[in-house]
Amino acid sequence: PLIYEIAVHKKAQGKKIGLKLLEESILALKDRGYEKLALYVTIGNTKALNLYDKLNFVSEKFNFCQLELQE
Question: How far is Cα 65 from Cα 59, in angstroms, rounded to an integer?
Answer without folding.
Answer: 4
